[in-house]
Design brief:
The complex is a heterodimer of chains A (327) and B (316). With 327 residues, chain A is mainly α. Chain A is 72% helix and 0% strand. Classes of the chains: A mainly alpha (327), B mainly alpha (316). The interface between A and B is large, with 53 and 61 residues.
């Protein structure tokens, strides 16, 4: 897509090459995460501890969930520019209705997942550019969030607070959560036959349709999954921050896209990696929150350093020999 | 009648003008005709900025899926600061200031493409990372910047002839040039060819790399120009002066009938879409609705317009 490289693989080795490419796609994000962790250990050895990881990775859970949501949409060659404001909207619902009127809160959250399903259907039936539709939805979610919570406030339900503050023995909760999210989605999407159909709908829609599968159904399933993970992301976020703000999730749109790509996913062709996406999200969260503060970067340059880290990590991928033939 | 309808259907950008007309009529119906022409003047002078970045973004998006410049808001912010600093409130430096802003944009565009080329990463991520760095440069460069634009520059930007802003006329000329470049020059045809099938374009001997480089540079240079003009319009530079142009630049391109899949661009649609978005806000402001309702309505109307206009026909 971005460059033309004509690699010729002979037929027998093509399959092996495909396997090793897949392995590489999962290994590279892990290497970049290791890079960030080594840097953190270098600047502040004490951060590499149970307590340190708990603090550093706390905000990584909602980012990982939003990244997975984005990944589902990217799998079917679409892009969700509304996931950030959607997470913010879910946060506002969680901090108000879900606490004060649980029945109403649950209905609204289920309804918002249904809206995602409808969007998927609409995008498929009318063959609309998802960028514009989700751009519009971004305004809608933000508007609803502002109507619901004009000023920052609200409070997370107690059960959610205590769940997000679990302190399991030995391994910090955020790590367990990240591994669980990654593995569950990995097995669902990469190891089941229906998962293969779903990815195929992005990789070769025509073949999937000729084989008798409904592309409409796959799109609805993927958008519904995106909605579900968006809801989980918003709830997890409020479980950590305890109160909400209509703009709380705005940064998640770009973070989630960056996480998917950092995790080895591609914008077209159904080539994604759930484990990679989770690792990409962890890398971004660690780079953005912890590494920069340990490095004593002046506030003016924090954002810029974020960009620089993103570039360095991606450059590392090239150095490590990313020779995927594209298109 | 059906023939006429079919003709309209074949030109999806007409919908954006229809949309603009409808929201304008709704607004003046509410005010009982009061301020009808003032609304058009105001809409024209604001739409100009969306059209200028829209032209750049349109060329980039036409390159094909995944091509989009997310660094425009940061670019516009930095260029606005550069323009104000170079002009330093003096009328004699206006041209130099505008050139400096364009040069700042051009430099960003070059960096953008270097990243895309050197790291072989999707342009969305390259321009996103770049925009973070530009933001920091701008924060540190433009700190406490309170330089007003030179009076002549500010006057020129708001100058009108018979209710039509001079800047709108200039931008109309710019879009005509853009249309000619797109459809009648080797460069423009190459952009379209790359968007339709990058591999075929490459095999046909089109210098894909150079064309993409030129396109990212062009888009960022227009972003720089827009930064200088916005600083003149809003009487000063600021870091977040370009924030809304991330979504707006994409929205005007796509609502205007350019294909997000690439290879099909539409210049007149940019004007329709820009006017539509500005008039939509004007209408909602006239109705006096709250910020939340305004956002929800804007979103729903964007979705409604794109749904009615429809996407590309599915290949059977």
């Amino acid at each position: 897509m971005t460059s033309i490289s004509l690699t010729r693989t002979s037929a027998p080795s093509a399959f092996a090459a495909l396997r090793s490419r897949q392995a590489l796609r999962t290994a590279l994000p892990a290497l970049s995460l290791a890079l960030i962790l080594i840097a953190i250990a270098w600047f502040n050895p004490r951060a590499i501890s149970y307590f340190g990881f708990n603090l550093m990775l706390n905000l990584a859970i909602p980012i990982a969930l939003a990244t997975i949501a984005q990944m589902f949409v990217i799998t079917v060659n679409d892009l969700d520019l509304s996931i950030g404001t959607f997470v913010g909207f879910v946060g506002c619902v969680t901090a108000t209705w879900l606490r004060d009127a649980p029945a109403l809160g649950i209905t609204v959250l289920l309804g918002s997942v249904a809206v995602y399903a409808v969007l998927g259907a609409l995008i498929h039936i009318r063959n609309l550019p998802s960028i514009v539709v989700t751009l519009g939805m971004g305004f809608v979610w933000q508007g609803l969030a502002i109507l619901l919570l004009p000023k920052p406030g609200g409070k997370a339900p107690d059960w959610l607070l205590s769940f997000m503050q679990l302190k399991p023995p030995l391994i910090p909760f955020p790590i367990i959560a990240a591994v669980a999210i990654g593995l569950i989605v990995h097995f669902g999407l990469m190891r089941t036959s229906f998962g293969a159909i779903l990815r195929g709908a992005g990789g070769n829609p025509l073949a999937i349709r000729r084989a008798g599968w409904s592309l409409l159904k796959t799109k609805i399933v993927m958008f519904t999954l995106a909605g579900i993970f968006g809801v989980l992301s918003g709830m997890a976020l409020i479980g950590i921050t305890t109160s909400a703000d209509a703009n709380i999730g705005n940064g998640y749109t770009l973070l989630s896209i960056a996480g998917v790509i950092l995790g080895g996913g591609e914008f077209v062709g159904g080539r994604v990696s759930p484990l990679g996406a989770v690792i990409g999200a962890l890398t971004l969260a660690l780079a953005a929150n912890s590494l920069l503060s340990f490095m004593h970067i002046p506030p003016d340059w924090q954002v810029g350093a974020n960009g620089a880290i993103l570039i360095i990590v991606l450059a590392a991928r090239v150095v490590l020999g990313r020779r995927e033939s594209r298109q | 009648m059906t023939a006429a309808l079919a003709k309209i259907g074949a030109k999806p950008w007409i919908w954006s003008f229809v949309g603009a007309l409808v929201v304008w009529l709704a607004a003046i119906a509410f005010t009982r005709g009061y301020g009808a022409s003032g609304m058009v003047t105001a809409a024209l002078s604001l739409a100009v900025f969306s059209v200028i970045v829209g032209v750049g973004q349109m060329f980039v998006i036409t390159l094909g899926p995944g091509n989009v410049d997310l660094s425009l808001p940061a670019n516009i912010g930095l260029a606005s600061a550069v323009a104000m600093k170079v002009m330093d409130g003096s009328d004699s430096m206006v041209a130099v200031g505008i050139l400096a802003a364009v040069a700042s944009g051009l430099a960003i565009g070059i960096c953008n493409y270097l990243l895309i080329w050197a790291l072989r990463i999707p342009p969305i991520i390259a321009t996103l990372s770049m925009s973070f760095i530009i933001q920091s440069v701008d924060i540190s460069y433009g700190r406490g910047l309170q330089i007003k634009p030179p009076p002549e520059f500010a006057d020129f930007i708001t100058l009108q002839i018979f209710g039509v802003p001079i800047l709108a006329i200039a931008t109309a000329l710019l879009t005509i040039v853009a249309a000619i470049v797109l459809h009648r020059t080797i460069y423009g045809r190459s952009v379209l060819a790359i968007g339709q099938n990058i591999r075929a374009a490459w095999l046909a001997g089109i210098p894909v790399g150079r064309i993409r480089f030129a396109t990212y540079a062009l888009c960022a240079a227009l972003g720089g120009l827009n930064g200088a003009l916005l600083a003149g319009y809003f009487r000063g530079a600021s870091v977040d002066i370009g924030n809304e142009y991330l979504l707006t630049s994409i929205a005007v391109v796509v609502i205007g009938g350019t294909s997000v899949a690439g290879g099909k661009a539409n210049v007149p649609g940019l004007w329709g879409a820009a006017l539509f978005l500005v008039l939509l806000l004007t209408m909602l402001n006239t109705f006096g609705v709250s910020a939340g309702v305004r956002l929800v309505t804007t979103g729903l109307i964007i979705i409604a317009v794109i749904t009615i206009a429809g996407g590309e026909k599915v290949q059977k």
